[in-house]
Write a structure and sequence with these properties.
Elements (H helix, E strand, L loop, with lengths): L5 H9 L3 E12 L2 E11 L5 E9 L2 E10 L12 H16 L3
Antiparallel strand pairs: 1-2, 2-3, 3-4
Helix pairs in contact: 1-2
Length: 99
């Protein structure tokens, strides 16, 4: 996990800082949106997330989510949040300590 860049570690620790990129209507019936996708991007690591929703009456229900990760973001196997935080703080401390 030492090869993960600090920005990716920050997103794993604090969660992504999403902003909306675009909305795309996938299905429309009689001028009413039925299914649409909202694409989000993280301001730190640039991971993209596409959430697909269905409009059912007055409710909006999420159908599924897809992620597109930048190179070097993903870690093989399961890694706990405490392990990520430990690595993040080690990299921050090592980067700031002058010898």
């Amino acid at each position: 996990m030492a090869e993960i860049n600090p920005v990716s570690l920050e997103c794993r620790d604090m969660r992504h800082a999403w902003f909306a990129v675009k909305d795309v209507i996938l299905t429309e019936k009689r001028g009413v949106v039925r299914i649409f996708t909202r694409t989000l991007r993280c301001t730190r690591c640039e991971t993209e997330r596409a959430d697909t929703y269905e409009v059912v009456g007055s409710r909006v229900e999420m159908l599924h989510t897809k992620y597109k990760y930048p190179d070097g973001y993903q870690i093989k196997g399961r890694v706990s949040v405490s392990t990520v935080r430990s690595q993040l703080w080690k990299s921050l401390i090592n980067g700031k300590v002058q010898s």
